[in-house]
């Protein structure tokens, strides 16, 4: 894909969808805090940022670009912080023996697990990845 990423109505819808989810999240954060706000957003909007929606080329291009930057080799483990619904994490599964996705949202993790039953080397865990540095988060 060359040129401007926003060349179709689908691309514009992706941007609008993402922007609307960001606005909703900011409103919820003031009232409920991070974890509950994300849960509410995932409960009320299916794939709030369109990360797993193939028609939205931007996200798929971003995932492909990120994977192309990895040195060509097989990895023992990979970690996806803030994995959401696990779209990128499932793609990482082809590059590593074990892949762990961590997200603050219980709802996102539950949905990610439901969408990933066919991939055996991918696991999801709910937790605050900011706590990993302090030794109180989930084990990796």
Give structural notes.
With 140 residues, the chain is of the alpha/beta class. The protein has a single domain, classed as Vaccinia Virus protein VP39 (Rossmann fold). Helix content is 45%, strand content 14%. It is built from 5 helices and 3 strands, in the order αααβαβαβ. It has helices at residues 9-32, 34-44, 57-68, 87-92, 106-115; strands at 75-81, 96-103, 122-126. A 3-stranded parallel sheet has the order 1-2-3. Helix 4 (87-92) links the parallel strand 1 and strand 2. Helix 1 (9-32) packs across helix 2 (34-44). The longest helix has 24 residues, at 9-32. The protein is globular and about 40 Å long. The chain starts with 8 loop residues before the first helix and ends in a 14-residue tail after the last strand. The model has no long low-confidence stretch (mean pLDDT 86).
Tags for this entry?
140 residues, alpha/beta, Rossmann fold, three-stranded parallel sheet, 14% strand
CATH topology: Rossmann fold
Instruction: Report on the biggest sheet.
Output: 3 strands, parallel
CATH superfamily: Vaccinia Virus protein VP39
Distance between the termini: 36 Å
* DSSP helical segment count: 5
CATH architecture: 3-Layer(aba) Sandwich
Average pLDDT number: 86
Principal-axis shape equals: globular
How does the SSE layout of this entry go?
Layout: H1 9-32, H2 34-44, H3 57-68, E1 75-81, H4 87-92, E2 96-103, H5 106-115, E3 122-126
Parallel strand pairs: 1-2, 2-3
Helix pairs in contact: 1-2
